[in-house]
C-alpha cells in the first residue's frame, strides 16, 4: 500500500514538475513578446515625434499597436490555459452520473435553510445571490457530492443567480472535478 502511494506521489510530483517547466516556457515567451511590443511602441512614439506624419495616420498606427497588445494578451492567456491542460482532464466530470429529475431542485428553490440541516447560515440559493466566502458541501464517500455539484454547475439558475451576485462586474465561471488526486 505504501509503495502504491509512494509511486502515485512520485508520479504526481513528476507531473507537477512538468507543469512547472511548461509554465516557465510560457512566461519566457510572454516576456519576449512584451519586450517586442514595448519596442514597437517606442518606435511608434519616436516616429510620432520625428516625422511630420498626419495626426490621422499616427492615430491609426497607435490603434494597430493597441490591437496588437490585446492579441498578445489573448495569446498569452491561451498559452497559460493550454499549459494547464492535461489528458483526461474531463474524465472525472464525465464519470459522474446525472441526478434523477427533481432530486436536487431544493438546492436552487429553497430560500430558507432546512430545519433538518441548520448548519449553513443561509440557503445555497441565497448564498449564490448575496453570499461571500465558501459554501462548504460535505458528505460521506458515495453520498452524491459530485452528482450534486454536476447538477448545480449545469443548471441555468446557478449562473443566473451568480450573475445577480456579480452585478456589473465580469463573472468568471470555472469548474474542475477531481475525485482522485492520482489522476491529476
UniProtKB/TrEMBL annotation:
Residues 23-50 form a coiled coil. The keyword Lipid metabolism does not apply. Residues 123-160 form the Nephrocystin 3-like N-terminal domain. It holds the Pfam family NPHP3_N. Keywords: Coiled coil, Repeat. This is Nephrocystin 3-like N-terminal domain-containing protein. The lineage of its organism: Eukaryota, Fungi, Dikarya, Ascomycota, Pezizomycotina.
Amino acid at each position: 500500500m505504501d509503495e502504491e502511494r509512494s509511486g502515485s506521489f512520485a508520479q504526481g510530483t513528476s507531473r507537477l514538475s512538468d507543469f512547472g517547466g511548461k509554465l516557465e516556457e510560457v512566461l519566457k515567451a510572454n516576456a519576449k513578446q512584451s519586450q517586442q511590443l514595448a519596442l514597437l511602441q517606442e518606435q511608434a512614439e519616436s516616429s510620432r515625434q520625428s516625422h511630420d506624419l498626419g495626426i490621422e495616420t499616427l492615430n491609426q498606427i497607435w490603434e494597430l499597436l493597441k490591437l496588437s497588445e490585446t492579441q498578445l494578451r489573448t495569446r498569452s492567456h491561451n498559452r497559460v490555459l493550454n499549459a494547464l491542460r492535461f489528458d483526461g482532464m474531463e474524465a472525472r466530470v464525465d464519470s459522474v452520473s446525472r441526478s434523477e429529475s427533481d432530486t436536487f431542485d431544493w438546492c436552487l428553490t429553497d430560500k430558507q435553510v432546512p430545519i433538518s440541516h441548520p448548519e449553513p447560515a443561509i440557503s445555497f440559493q441565497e448564498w449564490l445571490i448575496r453570499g461571500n466566502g465558501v459554501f462548504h458541501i460535505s458528505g460521506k464517500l458515495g453520498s452524491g457530492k459530485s452528482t450534486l455539484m454536476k447538477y448545480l454547475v449545469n443548471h441555468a439558475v446557478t449562473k443566473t443567480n451568480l450573475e445577480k451576485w456579480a452585478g456589473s462586474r465580469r463573472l468568471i465561471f470555472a469548474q474542475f472535478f477531481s475525485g482522485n488526486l492520482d489522476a491529476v
